[in-house]
Amino acid sequence: MESYRHILLATDLSEDNDAVAERAADMAARHNARLSLAHIVEQLPVDYVAEGVPIEVPDVTETLEQEARQGLEQLSRKLGLVDAACWVQVGSARVDIPELAREHSVDLIVVGARERHGLSLLLPSTTSGVLHHAPCDVLAVQMGSQ
């Protein structure tokens, strides 16, 4: 097996994602690989219609992008990374994470996986979407169930 050269940590920036980040940093150190970080701000609906009257919803996307950039920078510092690429995009994590991997020649994506219950089992998960669309290996790290 070849060593990984470029690892992408796809994070939702939640507190329980620290174990995933540490696993990605460990993999990068073991393989002497570059580690990049990414967060996808999920696209939010812009307008709602109630009884035929449009209701304007404040555009919070810019604020979420700014907070995500700050979160990735903090995580990068916490992991002791110097000059790590930190990418924030608005869209769909299932689609955009694999696309980032393609664009930047990533050969391993590290993503968190949560235990799912009830109705969430009927909906596609981000982890599953990334796994099925990724152009490279994917390491799904279990979160919050240890």
| Overall pLDDT | 84
Strands, count: 7
Which CATH top level class fits?
A: Alpha Beta
Q: Figure out the total of helices.
A: 4
How many domains, as an integer?
A: 1
Helix-strand sequence: EHEEEHEHEHE
The CATH architecture term is: 3-Layer(aba) Sandwich
> What overall form do the CA principal axes indicate?
globular
| Uncertain runs | 117-123
Look at the helices and sheets and give the structural class.
alpha/beta
Largest beta-sheet characterization: 5 strands, parallel
Helix content: 25-40%
Global Rg: 17 Å
CATH topology grouping: Rossmann fold
CATH homologous superfamily classification: HUPs
What is the topology, as strand order, of the major beta sheet? Answer: 5-2-1-6-7
Distance between the termini: 29 Å
Description:
The protein has 146 residues and is α/β, with parallel strands linked by helices. The chain has a single domain (6-143), classed as Rossmann fold (3-Layer(aba) Sandwich). It has four helices and seven strands, in the order E-H-E-E-E-H-E-H-E-H-E. The strands form two sheets. A five-stranded parallel sheet has the order 5-2-1-6-7, with helices on both faces. Strands 3-4 form a two-stranded antiparallel sheet. Helix 3 (93-103) runs parallel beside helix 4. The longest helix is centred in the middle third of the chain and has 18 residues, at 61-78. The two termini are 29 Å apart. The model is unreliable at 117-123 (pLDDT under 50).
